[in-house]
Specification:
- Strand 5 and strand 6 form a beta hairpin.
- Helix content is 43%, strand content 12%.
- It is built from 24 helices and 14 strands.
- The model has no long low-confidence stretch (mean pLDDT 93).
- The protein is globular, with a radius of gyration of 25 Å.
- It is α/β, with parallel strands linked by helices.
- It folds into four domains: 85 residues, DNA polymerase, domain 1, CATH 1.10.150.110; 56 residues; 146 residues, Beta Polymerase, domain 2, CATH 3.30.460; 235 residues, Alpha-Beta Barrel (TIM Barrel).
């Protein structure tokens, strides 16, 4: 069990106890445990109870529950609270901004116990009868519930990819003479997936005997199963038509439809390798990540397919947090981790003071951090730490801090973190005001979305990107797999307008630097090339591109 999985059990426990009005002290301790454990990079599952008790904020009771989870996969205390709570109510507790008190109000006041019942009550305008619920709150909740329903049955890419890696290793060891390859949404590196799809030459009858694979449905063409609570689909084929089947199962319906329309009468069956399909169609090979729609075929036919960015092209870690704000590791530890991974520089961007909930830096602590950065730069040269900040975009679009303090940073990432319930016009104008500010260098996570959790505020992407082009502001592709914001589908327009894209891990611990990988995968879906990536530049070139220094 991973640390985030362990932590989520404590978050759920705290919410359920608050829902039922239990001991506030215990609720606070479990919530604090969630916030600490989810960021901890030590192997909590592999530690003894005695070792766990030595961790900050982990007492005997919490250590015992962590050990129980690690050894049994269950927490008895949590199971008792779950039994007292309808499944639909537990689902509501996962809705951002819909806390235990509000859930309790609709449960007690309206008797609803499912998301469907709650949506029906909203459509009848019944929530406004309850204390604390107005029309705006009701409409906001309706949008969140509809998003939740649309997101059901989806999984984040890292969750599926991790399971796929383990399953592929198992299958290839068990059946060395058979072929197993990722396909579908997994091969296209989609940010969210409905299942783990694999293409295999293994016969369906043999697939049914794979240890740990719980088969739900089996035909000659596919086996639908489950492993570690992740849905798995095995597409069966022969070696002779492996290429044809891989092409068919990899591309989206829109891509395949356009491909077939442009190749009338051609037979693409019975081909052993996927490259043979493209050769027969006389179309250059298209990377799986880009096979989302038919527009990429025009690029292929015109000989203008992009040379997609690789993870090795990224030279610097832009957007990282340390213990100065809400990070787990110190500034020195973050710098050393970036250097050890082969990066040339680190853009240190802790939270600004408006983000008080994240221990945002007051001006005196900003200057303290600058002094430490200068000392580390002398010690770690030629590795470089740039003085940056994730500067809050305030409600009126202005930036946190005064202009004098902002002028001391090497560069500024401007992001929205508060007052997220905005309509498109207000959200867009707020971003435009920040982009027009001459101190803004990079627009951070433009919509504030959290995949499968929070839809993000609506913005006019074209107006925002046009403004970034006009004011020489780069746009962040936040590489945290829960964000991946800017969405990959807007990368082509950003590139067309000459806006640089910065692939940023938003790392809150040394391990978070590795999230750059997910950002690169998303960037490849959007056709991003090295020359359009801000942090594929050296640090001097980066500052030159942003207009922070002169040639």
């Amino acid at each position: 069990m991973t640390n985030p999985e362990i932590a989520r059990h404590f978050r759920e426990l705290g919410k359920l106890m608050e829902l039922h009005g239990d001991n506030p002290f215990k609720i606070r301790s479990y919530t604090n445990a969630y916030n600490k454990l989810r960021k901890d990079e030590r192997d909590l599952a592999g530690m003894s109870e005695a070792e766990l008790q030595q961790l900050e904020g982990v007492g005997k009771a919490i250590a015992g529950k962590i050990h129980e989870l690690a050894t049994t996969g269950r927490m008895e205390t949590l199971e008792k609270w779950r039994e007292k709570t309808p499944e639909g109510i537990r689902e509501m507790l996962n809705i951002s901004g819909f806390g235990p008190k509000k859930v309790k109000a609709v449960w007690d006041g309206l008797g609803v116990t499912t998301v469907g019942q709650l949506l029906y009550a909203i459509n009848e305008n019944r929530l406004v009868e309850l204390k604390g619920f107005g029309l705006k709150t009701q409409e906001s909740l309706k949008q969140k519930l509809e998003f939740l329903q649309r997101s059901r049955g989806r999984l984040l890419y890292p969750t599926v990819a991790l399971t796929a890696t383990a399953l592929l290793e198992q299958l290839r060891n068990m059946f060395p003479d058979e072929r197993f390859e990722p396909t579908g949404e997994l091969r296209r590196c989609c940010p969210t997936l409905s299942a783990l799809p694999l293409l295999t030459t293994l016969a369906p009858a043999r697939a049914a005997r794979i240890p740990g694979l719980q088969v739900r449905e089996a035909t000659e063409e596919r086996t639908v199963a489950e492993v570690d609570e992740v849905p798995v689909v095995l597409h069966h084929c022969t070696s002779a038509d492996f290429g044809s089947k891989q092409f068919r199962h990899t591309g989206s319906r829109a891509f395949l439809r356009t491909f077939v329309e442009q190749c009338p009468g051609l037979d693409f069956t019975g081909l052993a390798e996927e490259e043979d399909v493209f050769a027969r169609a006389r179309v250059p090979w298209i990377a799986p990540e880009m096979r989302e729609d038919g527009r990429v075929l025009e690029l292929a036919q015109n000989g203008s397919l992009p040379v997609l960015i690789e993870e090795s092209d990224v030279r610097g870690v832009v957007h990282a947090h340390s213990t100065y704000s809400d990070g787990i590791h110190s500034l020195r530890e973050m710098a050393l981790a970036a250097r050890e991974r082969g990066y040339e520089y680190l853009v240190m961007s802790d939270h600004s003071q408006a983000a008080f909930y994240a221990n945002g830096l007051k001006p005196d602590r900003v200057r303290e951090q600058w002094q430490e950065i200068e000392a580390l730069n002398r010690e770690l040269a030629p590795f470089r730490i740039l003085k940056s900040i994730e500067c809050d975009i305030l409600s009126d679009g202005s930036l946190d801090y005064d202009a004098d303090l902002r002028s001391g940073f090497d560069l500024i990432i401007a992001s929205v973190h508060s007052n997220l319930n905005m309509d498109e016009e207000r959200a867009t104008e707020r971003l435009l005001a920040a982009i027009r500010n001459p101190d803004t260098d990079i627009l951070g996570h433009p919509t504030g979305r959290l995949l499968l959790s929070r839809e993000g505020y609506p913005i006019d992407h074209m107006r925002v990107i046009d403004a970034c082009a006009e004011h020489r502001v780069a746009i962040e592709l936040n590489a945290n797999p829960y964000r991946l914001d800017l969405d990959w589908s807007w990368i082509p327009y950003a590139v067309e307008r000459g806006v640089m894209v910065s692939i940023n891990p938003d790392a809150h611990a040394t391990g978070g630097i590795g999230d750059i990988r997910y950002g690169v995968l998303a960037a490849r879906k959007g056709g991003l090339e090295k020359r359009h990536c801000l942090n594929a530049l050296g640090w001097r070139e980066l500052l030159l591109r942003l207009g922070r220094i002169e040639a």
